[in-house]
Inverse folding.
């Protein structure tokens, strides 16, 4: 079986690489084209392209330019792939670079993207996590140590011209409902910071003006942030352009369901090994609209959990109708409030839910008026017992809070 390796140089900026791009557009040239059955190893920058450092300041997270991200390695062409096929991608292995055994979790300022709980935690925060084989711990969030589920947060194929136009139409329509909202409702095309891979000159400038940002998941895959897509998993992507144009990046060491802090996983630079194949005419055969995912059999063996419930009722007591977003928010808030009783700050609890392998479930979506969402927090990741007892919670040793950086005026 043939092999291909795509390398990057972390000492250079993303813009100095022509095998990296940070927008979706059908005309971005393939960096290589391979036969079905080929195995590839792709090296990837962290999603910010090196904007965040291993230190005890959150100013770099505060100052991240979100118009530049995500930096993706690719696109990879697959010979014989045509629109309407399914591209089959097996994730064979992945990991951090040998000399980059650390990652970061960021909470973005409300003025710069925010997060799931941005109303409660509006300022930029950062925690650094050190890797020890399959385990991670943090000097900023003491008392926890867990096995990561390494995975690509972002992976997908190039869109067709028609699909790109549809994305831009519907997302701009949403933005127009509240164009001055902070954080914004969606991210419109923005040419000045677009990096279009091997496109150059006037063609690159023209494409950058309409190229889609990489923030959300869409029909082609994209920023799905599915924590279970670790080695041993398989993905079936609809093909929209000749040769498919597969790209990936935004590697995570670990993540909780929902990636709730926005930069919610443990972000890392590293490498990923995949194998590509085709199912001809697979979109029609299987009525595929969005990618289909087969998770890996490899999972951390955490069997003991505390399950926190949330329902469709706001903190002030306003009832909503089957609002699963609100219900999951309330489950997260309830878990954070619980962790605070053991000495964690709210931000540390928030970071734990974003980075540890917690599970999020929609447990009930039919019992009017309340949707019921649940968050499964593994208790075995803690160095002490967090289960309720008659003695009450035991405060862990106090520690400095996660570094915070106020917004710059």
């Amino acid at each position: 079986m043939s092999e291909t390796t795509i390398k990057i140089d972390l000492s250079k900026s993303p813009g100095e690489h022509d095998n990296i791009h940070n927008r979706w557009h059908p005309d971005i040239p393939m960096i290589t084209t391979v036969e079905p059955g080929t195995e590839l190893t792709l090296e990837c920058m962290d999603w910010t392209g090196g904007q965040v450092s291993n230190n005890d300041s959150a100013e770099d997270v505060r100052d991240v330019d979100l118009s530049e991200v995500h930096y993706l390695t690719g696109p990879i062409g697959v010979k014989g792939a045509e629109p309407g096929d399914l591209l089959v991608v097996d994730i064979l292995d992945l990991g951090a670079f040998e000399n980059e055994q650390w990652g970061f979790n960021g909470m973005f300022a409300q003025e710069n993207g925010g997060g799931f709980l941005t109303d409660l935690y509006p300022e930029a925060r950062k925690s650094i996590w050190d890797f020890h084989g399959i385990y991670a711990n943090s000097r900023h969030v003491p008392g926890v140590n867990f096995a990561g589920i390494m995975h690509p947060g972002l992976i997908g194929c190039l869109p067709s011209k028609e699909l790109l136009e549809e994305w831009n139409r519907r997302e701009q329509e949403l933005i127009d409902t509240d164009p001055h909202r902070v954080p914004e409702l969606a991210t419109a095309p923005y040419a000045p910071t677009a990096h279009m891979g091997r496109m150059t000159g006037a063609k690159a400038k023209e494409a950058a003006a309409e190229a889609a940002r990489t923030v959300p998941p869409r029909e082609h895959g994209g920023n799905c942030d599915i924590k279970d897509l670790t080695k041993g998993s398989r993905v079936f992507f609809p093909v929209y352009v000749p040769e498919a144009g597969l790209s990936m990046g935004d590697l995570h060491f670990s993540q909780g369901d929902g990636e709730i802090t926005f930069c919610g996983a443990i972000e890392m630079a590293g490498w990923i090994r995949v194998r590509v194949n085709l199912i001809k005419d697979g979109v029609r055969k299987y009525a595929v609209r969005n990618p289909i995912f087969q998770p890996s059999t490899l999972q951390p063996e955490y069997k003991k959990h505390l399950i926190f419930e949330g329902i469709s009722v706001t903190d002030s007591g306003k009832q909503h109708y089957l609002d699963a977003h609100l219900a999951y928010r309330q489950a997260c808030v309830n878990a954070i409030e619980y962790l605070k009783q053991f000495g964690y700050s709210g931000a540390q609890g928030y970071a734990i839910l974003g980075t540890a392998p917690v599970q999020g479930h929609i447990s009930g979506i039919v019992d009017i008026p309340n949707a019921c969402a649940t968050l499964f927090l593994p208790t075995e990741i803690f160095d002490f017992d967090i289960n309720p007892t008659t003695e009450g919670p035991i405060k862990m040793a106090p520690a400095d809070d996660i570094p915070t950086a106020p917004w710059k005026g």
